[in-house]
């Protein structure tokens, strides 16, 4: 008997299957695992949801307060404050004029209140990021082992599509200001951590020797020598953190953050081209204001750090 | 001000750089060369059996070409570098036995350092740089400021207190570095190529200032240089290093008149010997009394001038009390030069 050619081909196909199809874990098992993880997260939320909410309640109050101050303050006050800040940072009238003009355009386009909400979120996220990022950067610099681990975690945080961390945040905290704030902070904090560490590492070796030779304790060395010399780099980190926070605003609007981002989201959903453009430009305008002010301030801090003229 | 009583004794000091210095110290102590250690074991022999006795209140110069181990050696004195083997005894106290806090205290009050590239803090003004050591030590701000201002004036920077380092020339920056070190009022001053980055004229000024200060302060100064003129001008004692080993030690007269080997011979070949050799080093027995007189400490260069002014071919040498202790002849001077 000759073997049936058709059957033969089918057998060959079956034998080749393992090469063409990547061997995957048992689908049933995978499904169970996913369900188990999601289920336990949900269970966690169910049993601790209230306490988690209570825990973040003070933060929520701060965010609301901050937002109300920004959104309800008389607009001339905000314009004057922003202008004064620009002057303080740069000591140049051109910068002040740029900042005031940008705010004026935003107001004329009817985006004042939304912009203030966005600015308030970005500012509070930045302040919080700096407050935790600088100490973490110092820790990362000081403890090398731990630092290597942190570096890995930061790499993951920065490469992970930002939408992905919205999920656990939403599962645990639901939708609203606090989860939005947390998502923005997670997204915006890596640069300040990294650049604090980098700034400390870049301090000249002779400078560290001088600190040691004069008998500095480790903390004197950190605060009198390393941190002051790291400031320009740290400032660059703060600048990046602000920009990342602003970039995250649109994404965070998906989980209930109000402001310009929400308008953009609506514009996408409803194909309102002009609304999208206006809000987009408002975000760009705010970005430019933040960037100019923080960079000018950084430059002024560095006035005495240039090469010596001998 | 009282002279420093603090001597520095360095005994059998070895420093090996590399992954496992301890593993090779025995072999090096038994005579393995720097080349062999490098080629066979990929370790660098930084210092090889260094023995120096630095007298209190004097300027000890350490000289050598770049890479000869000068910086490594000076950093052992305040233990910025840990030795692989050996002893460092300062004012009777073994530096290597100090605990971390004792060492910190020793660095704050026992030693001060001046750096080649100044190492001033760019974000601090001159006065705030100068008082850095006092601030670290916990001296109260007003007292520190008063001390700082006094030293700023002493190094010739009065009026520049509130400038920033990058507004000053290199020479002025190093004056700040010196004032910072002097403000700490330590008995030991460590200067690692402190003047090497400066222009020749400014360097000479700074040397003069250091000698003037030293007359007044009498500190134990360790001064590193790769410049022979600087070494001869400043050093009460000179150590010459090569590849981590001492080639010769002595005072300027020993080195100029009895160079230990070809290496040093080549070093001293181009130096103006008349400027650094003293009359006392070439003295002969006196014969006549009716000759011009030169002090024993006078340099040959100046003695030649005295002789030619007097149109004499010999002079009597007198000591500090004015007694004749011998004579020099123009012929001997010429043969030495
Ligand atoms: N941390 C180190 N690791 C390895 N080798 C070093 C280290 N520090 C100095 N060396 C080596 O030791 C030798 C002496 O260096 P150094 O003391 O800086 O010389 P100098 O100050 O005389 O120019 C050089 O060969 C240098 O490469
Ligand atoms: Mg050196």
Automatic annotation (TrEMBL), chain A:
Transmembrane regions: 73-89, 96-113, 119-143, 163-189, 242-265, 272-290
A GO CC term attached to the entry: ATP-binding cassette (ABC) transporter complex
GO MF entries: amine transmembrane transporter activity; carnitine transmembrane transporter activity
Localization (cell): Cell membrane
Record key words, sorted: Cell membrane, Membrane, Transmembrane, Transmembrane helix, Transport
Domain ABC transmembrane type-1 per the UniProt entry, residue ranges: 115-294
Membrane topology: Multi-pass membrane protein
Entries under Pfam families matching the protein: BPD_transp_1
Swiss-Prot/TrEMBL GO biological process terms: choline transport; glycine betaine transport
Superkingdom field: Bacteria
Family as reported in the entry's similarity comment: Belongs to the binding-protein-dependent transport system permease family.
PANTHER family found in the cross-reference section: GLYCINE BETAINE/PROLINE BETAINE TRANSPORT SYSTEM PERMEASE PROTEIN PROW, GLYCINE BETAINE_PROLINE BETAINE TRANSPORT SYSTEM PERMEASE PROTEIN PROW
Protein name in UniProt: Permease
Native organism: Gemmobacter lanyuensis
Organism lineage: Bacteria, Pseudomonadati, Pseudomonadota, Alphaproteobacteria, Rhodobacterales
From TrEMBL, chain B:
UniProt EC number: 7.6.2.9
Gene3D superfamilies recorded: P-loop containing nucleotide triphosphate hydrolases (3.40.50.300)
SMART domains attached to this UniProt entry: AAA
Ranges for domain ABC transporter: 32-268
GO CC annotation, single: plasma membrane
InterPro entries: AAA+_ATPase (IPR003593), ABC_osmolyte_uptake_ATP-bind (IPR051921), ABC_transporter-like_ATP-bd (IPR003439), ABC_transporter-like_CS (IPR017871), CBS_dom (IPR000644), CBS_dom_sf (IPR046342), Gly-betaine_transp_ATP-bd (IPR005892), P-loop_NTPase (IPR027417)
One Pfam family named in its UniProt record: ABC_tran
Catalytic activity: a quaternary ammonium(out) + ATP + H2O = a quaternary ammonium(in) + ADP + phosphate + H(+)
An example Gene Ontology molecular-function term: ABC-type quaternary ammonium compound transporting activity
A GO biological process held by the record: glycine betaine transport
Residues in CBS domain copies: 286-337
UniProt superkingdom: Bacteria
Record-linked PROSITE patterns: ABC_TRANSPORTER_1, ABC_TRANSPORTER_2, CBS
Catalytic class of the enzyme: translocase
Chief place where the protein resides: membrane
Localization, UniProt: Cell inner membrane
Annotated keywords: Amino-acid transport, ATP-binding, CBS domain, Cell inner membrane, Cell membrane, Membrane, Nucleotide-binding, Transport
UniProt membrane topology term: Peripheral membrane protein
Family: Belongs to the ABC transporter superfamily.
Assembly information from the UniProt record: The complex is probably composed of two ATP-binding proteins (TmoW), two transmembrane proteins (TmoV) and a solute-binding protein (TmoX). The complex is probably composed of two ATP-binding proteins, two transmembrane proteins and a solute-binding protein.
Name listed for the protein in its UniProt record: Quaternary amine transport ATP-binding protein
Organism: Gemmobacter lanyuensis
